[in-house]
Design goal:
Elements (H helix, E strand, L loop, with lengths): L1 E5 L6 H12 L3 E3 H10 L3 H11 L6 H11 L9 E4 L5 H13 L6 E6 L2 H9 L1 E3 L6 E3 L7 E2 L5 E2 L14 H24 L3 E5 L4 H11 L10 E2 L5
Parallel strand pairs: 1-3, 1-4, 2-3, 4-9, 9-10
Antiparallel strand pairs: 5-6, 7-8
């Protein structure tokens, strides 16, 4: 099964991609991971990407697409893959279609995870990060294991946890605004191709996983379905 996962930051698509990839025995491919791998492996596109990043510039679409194409040329994607974080724009989606077409392949579905903006802000603004070991906690779902005498949260490694600037409510709201402006055309692109599956991401991890898996089937479109907690 070949899938693209779409959704705003903090909605949980990365977690769902990990879980589904494990069940399907296919790789979960995120842009962050493939950039790190390409740079570490000194691939042609990885070196190009590094040159832009070292100069403090955004990596252009042509290089991003090239890095993705390199990753999709590996043997472990023969039985499928889940792309998390790519494509982000219609030109990238068209490029992905071209990459797959040259291999005689097509996407099965593009999965859009949705939740009210206030829910997303609440989820992200509850995150706490460790500046020492990089562990991430959440004030509600994964509380810190310790605290100082003043009640400030502590990581398992003993370091004091912090809330990153990117996780502040006002920053999250701005990130969501940018996401929606960039992604709306992409959602319409996949809807027009009858590949879009919309998933209501409000609920427990297990509930979302159950609903997602119950709807996906190779070669079948679920554009007409809106996955809800009660659809069981």
């Amino acid at each position: 099964m070949r899938l693209v996962f779409l959704g705003p930051p903090g909605i949980g698509k990365g977690t769902q991609a990990e879980r589904l990839a494990g069940r399907l025995s296919v790789p979960k491919i995120s842009t962050g991971d493939i950039f790190r791998d390409a740079i570490a492996g000194k691939t042609p596109m990885g070196l190009k990407a590094k040159s832009y990043m070292d100069a403090g510039h955004l990596v252009p679409d042509s290089v991003v697409i090239g890095v993705v194409e390199e990753r999709l040329s590996r043997e472990d994607v023969q039985n499928g893959f889940i792309l998390d974080g790519f494509p982000r724009t219609v030109p990238q989606a068209e490029a992905l279609e071209g990459i797959l077409s040259r291999k005689g392949l097509t996407l099965n579905n593009a999965v859009l995870f949705e939740a009210p903006e206030e829910e997303i802000v609440r989820r992200i603004s509850g995150r706490l990060s460790c500046p020492n070991c990089q562990r991430v906690y959440h004030s509600e779902h994964n509380p810190a294991p310790g605290q100082t005498a003043e009640g400030e949260p502590l990581c398992a490694c003993g370091a004091r946890l912090v809330r990153r600037k990117d996780d502040l409510p006002e920053t999250v709201a701005e990130r969501l605004k940018v996401y929606r402006s960039q992604t709306a055309p992409l959602v319409n692109y996949y809807r027009a191709k009858e590949l879009l599956v919309s998933v209501d991401a409000v609920g427990s991890i297990e509930e979302v996983t159950h609903d997602l898996e119950s709807r996906l089937s190779p070669g079948k479109s679920y554009d007409h379905l809106k996955i809800k907690r009660g659809d069981r």
